[in-house]
Amino acid sequence: MRRRDLIAASAALPVLAAGREAMASDRPAPGGASVSMPGVGLPIIAGGRLRNYVFVSLRLHLGGSATPESMRPKEAFLRDALVRAGHRTPFTVQDDWTLIDTAALSASLMRSAAAIVGRGVVTRVEVVNQAPRRRTGVNPR
What mean pLDDT is reported for the chain? Predict the structure, then answer.
């Protein structure tokens, strides 16, 4: 393997590990059921330029009679809505290009979930993990 391939593969390892952990934690939470969405890649755009990507693992807390099994078919639609929203209005933290604005991400996904699966089905969005693609050389100053 070339050196570039090895570096790229080693950069993806934390994302893959986080995805496996999120998949393993798909069991219902003490307060109710939840669904994990591992490894969603979101852009960091500043000054009209793509600066970085951050891969996030999410946990959607379900309310009412929703079950993880009933949410599985809708997961791709929720993921698509999140990626589209992240490109339309990036969830960029002003002074750090290695983090996502979790409040903006949660609010956007809650709005999308209400339209896709119905109001009250997703009660809370929890950002479990954030893994930036580039950790160095992304100083916004």
Answer: 82
48: exposed, middle or buried (Cβ count in 10 Å: 0-12, 13-18, 19+): exposed
Closest CA to 121 of 55, 75, 83, 57: 75
Please answer whether residues 83 and 41 qualify as being in contact, where contact means their C-beta atoms are separated by less than 8 angstroms. yes
Q: Give the pLDDT of residue 126.
A: 94
CA distance readout (Å), 51 to 34, 47, 99: 32, 9, 12
* Three-state helix/strand/coil letters over 73-138: HHHHHHHHHHHHHHHHCCCEECCEEEEECHHHHHHHHHHHHHHHCCCCCEEEEEEEEEEECCCCCC
The predicted pLDDT at position 25 comes to: 46
